[in-house]
Write a structure and sequence with these properties.
CATH superfamily: Aldolase class I
Strand order of the largest sheet: 1-2-3-4-5-6-7-8
Helix content: 25-40%
Number of domains: 1
Number of helices: 8
Largest sheet: 8 strands, parallel, barrel
Distance between the termini: 18 Å
CATH architecture: Alpha-Beta Barrel
Order of helices and strands: EHEHEHEHEHEHEHEEEH
CATH class: Alpha Beta
Radius of gyration: 16 Å
Strand content: 15-25%
Structural class: alpha/beta
């Protein structure tokens, strides 16, 4: 299992160079960039993502969130944005992940599993076999209009803990995290990292005080 002595922090839904700088200055370990989605907050143009990523230190993980499920489409987005990590928010086959790995050997592949119940443990276990990391979120891929992230909902952290114990790759935890509940989430799940978008925004903009409070809460959790 990965070392979880220091919980990593990923701040998602970057919308500008200024937001990326704010997040990194506050102590974020990774940044997220949302491409087109069927629903949810934060999508930006591929060209804007590339502009922001160009200002980010090369050793910082830049997660490109994609709802595409075919390897060629995902690879085209990665080429357009310059991101070094892909976060696949919908179900894809192991063959698709392997095609991404073959095409871009240095790429970090993060598969999202939306925690809907105990059945998510087996889904995560299977996905972990061909992923570098798993990220747990609270979407609903079976909804009429798919919810693939950014719902602001908390899922069952007891299932999240079971998944963390069942897999051998690092686990990120997302879904309704905020400055006032992230400490409880870290204690309950002990993830490799936590991921947040809407919980740090005020009227859509990244809120400096919320970011500082969130980072502080994570760093202060033993």
């Amino acid at each position: 299992m990965a070392d979880t002595t220091r919980t990593r922090i990923k701040i998602c839904c970057m919308a500008s160079i200024a937001e990326a700088a704010l997040a990194l200055d506050a102590g974020a370990d990774a940044l997220g960039f949302v491409m087109r989605m069927p629903s949810g907050p934060g999508p930006i143009a591929e060209s804007l993502a590339r502009e922001i990523i160009a200002t980010v230190p090369r050793d910082v993980p830049t997660f490109m969130l994609t709802s595409e499920i075919e390897a060629d489409a995902i690879l085209a987005q990665l080429e357009a944005t310059g991101a070094n990590t892909v976060q696949i928010v919908d179900y894809v086959t192991p063959v698709t992940r392997q095609r991404l790995r073959d095409a871009m050997p240095e790429l970090r592949i993060v598969q999202v599993v939306h925690v809907t119940g105990p059945e998510s443990v087996d889904e995560a276990r299977m996905a972990a076999a061909t992923s570098d990391m798993i990220l747990l979120d609270s979407g609903n891929p079976t909804a009429k209009i798919k919810e693939l992230g950014g719902t602001g909902r908390v899922h069952d952290w007891t299932v999240s803990k079971s998944i963390r114990e069942a897999i051998d790759v690092p686990l990120w935890l997302a879904g309704g995290l905020r400055p006032d509940n992230v400490r409880e989430a870290v204690v309950a799940v002990r993830p490799y990292g936590v991921d947040v978008c809407s919980g740090l925004r005020t009227e859509g903009a990244l809120d400096r005080e919320k970011v500082r409070a969130f980072v502080g809460a994570v760093r202060d959790t033993a």
